[in-house]
């Protein structure tokens, strides 16, 4: 029996938390834990607390039961998933602090272990992969399997990213054997875009700018652009990935404005640049090839500050 299973078994009330701006792996892992507990331990009181999530994940069982506000009642166990540090729990950090026991399940290399118990596997592709091997496989329902598969495909870019391993593929294959509609999950949650999402993507690509001998590229969406197109932060997914796959690009940066002169920064790299180091320097985190942070200043200031770190790594690689 795994440590996670042990902690679940002795808890009567359980709160499940993820990070702010929840992505596919965060939502998938939160709802995987929720469904696993609901299926195996229906007598336990379990709740997921998250910021508003993208409706494209509404096919996951339990999505409509996600709570956007913590009622202040201390849980026996707080399960934090896919969250590299306590600050990224946002308004729900008090739920962690007041729980009798806590456990963090994660795969971010920057996670230093902030919970009472910590199950952190930086070599895993996703938190959903970590959870798959923490759960008892025969007890994973089809609904829980859909959640786990969703998280894995989103954090691996449908098995394209360098974090994909044979262990990742083995987990995905065994989840597919549960009878999940894997093709629909990929199409509907990863590839499909609305008309407005396609428009803002086109705008971002059209206005992108390359630098450092075209080895890097960035684009920015300002608040006024989001208002003009009628989109929010949930409609901006995938832009940085489209920048990353442009021929000759080693590092891609996408910014969107969250407040005057404040930007959410997403970075992706292909082979050389460790963007997690850069994000950590500016108070963020993530993975070697995919990371992010929040930065303040003009767009010029933000890109200049990032480019100094990127250029340093590129130069170091030339002397290896």
Number of domains: 2
Report the strand count. 11
Q: Identify the CATH class of the largest domain.
A: Alpha Beta
Query: Shape, please?
Result: globular
- Which residue ranges are poorly predicted, with pLDDT under 50 across at least 5 consecutive positions? none
Helix-residue proportion: 25-40%
Q: Give the C-alpha Rg.
A: 19 Å
In sequence order, what are the helices and strands, one letter per element?
A: HEHEEHEEHHHHHEEHHEEHEEH
Helix-strand category:
alpha/beta
CATH topology of the largest domain: inorganic pyrophosphatase (n-terminal core)
**Main sheet: strand order:** 6-7-8-9-11-10
Strand content: 15-25%
Rounded to the nearest angstrom, the distance between the terminal CA atoms is: 45 Å
According to CATH, the homologous superfamily of the largest domain is inorganic pyrophosphatase (n-terminal core)
Put simply, the count of helices is 12
Mean pLDDT: 96
CATH architectural label of the largest domain: Alpha-Beta Complex
Taking the sheet with the most strands, its summary is:
6 strands, mixed
Q: Would you give an account of this structure?
A:
The protein is α/β, with parallel strands linked by helices and 320 residues long. It folds into 2 domains: 3-191, inorganic pyrophosphatase (n-terminal core) (Alpha-Beta Complex); 195-318, Diaminopimelate Epimerase, Chain A, domain 1 (Roll). Helices cover 39% and strands 19% of the residues. The chain is built from 12 helices and 11 strands. The chain has helices at 3-9, 24-40, 93-98, 127-134, 142-156, 166-176, 182-191, 195-206, 223-229, 239-244, 275-281, 299-318, and strands spanning 13-17, 45-49, 77-81, 101-106, 117-120, 209-211, 216-221, 251-259, 262-269, 285-286, 290-296. The strands form 2 sheets. It has a 6-stranded mixed beta sheet with strand order 6-7-8-9-11-10, sandwiched between helices. Strands 2-1-3-4-5 form a 5-stranded parallel beta sheet, with helices on one face. Helix 2 runs antiparallel to helix 5, helix 4 (127-134) runs antiparallel to helix 5 (142-156) and helix 5 (142-156) runs antiparallel to helix 6. It is globular and about 60 Å long.
């Amino acid at each position: 029996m795994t440590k996670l299973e042990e902690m679940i078994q002795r808890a009567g009330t359980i709160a499940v938390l993820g990070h702010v701006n929840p992505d596919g792996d965060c939502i998938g892992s939160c709802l995987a834990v929720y469904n696993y507990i609901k299926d195996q331990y229906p007598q336990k009181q379990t709740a997921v607390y998250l910021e508003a999530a993208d409706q494209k994940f509404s096919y996951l069982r339990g999505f409509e039961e996600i709570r956007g506000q913590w009622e202040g009642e201390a849980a026996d166990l707080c399960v934090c998933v896919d969250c590299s540090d306590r600050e990224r729990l946002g308004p729900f950090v008090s739920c962690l602090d007041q729980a009798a026991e806590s456990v963090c399940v994660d795969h971010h290399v920057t996670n230093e272990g902030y919970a009472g118990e910590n199950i952190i596997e930086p070599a895993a592709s996703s938190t959903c992969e970590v959870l798959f091997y923490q759960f008892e496989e025969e007890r994973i329902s089809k609904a829980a399997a859909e959640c786990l598969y969703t998280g894995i495909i989103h954090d691996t870019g449908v098995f394209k990213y360098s974090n994909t391993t044979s262990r990742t593929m083995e987990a995905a294959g065994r989840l597919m054997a549960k009878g999940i509609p894997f093709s629909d999950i990929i199409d509907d949650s990863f590839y499909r875009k609305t008309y407005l999402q396609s428009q803002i993507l086109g705008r971002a690509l059209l206005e992108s700018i390359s630098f450092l001998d075209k080895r890097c590229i960035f684009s920015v969406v300002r608040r006024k652009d989001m208002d003009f197109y009628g989109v929010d932060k949930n409609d901006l997914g995938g832009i940085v990935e489209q920048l990353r796959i442009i021929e000759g690009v080693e590092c891609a940066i996408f910014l969107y404005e969250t407040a005057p002169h404040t930007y959410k920064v997403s970075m992706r790299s292909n082979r050389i640049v460790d963007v997690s180091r850069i994000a950590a320097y500016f108070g963020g985190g993530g993975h070697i090839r995919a990371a992010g942070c929040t930065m303040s200043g003009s767009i010029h200031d933000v890109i200049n500050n990032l480019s100094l770190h990127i250029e340093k790594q590129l130069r170091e690689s030339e002397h290896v």
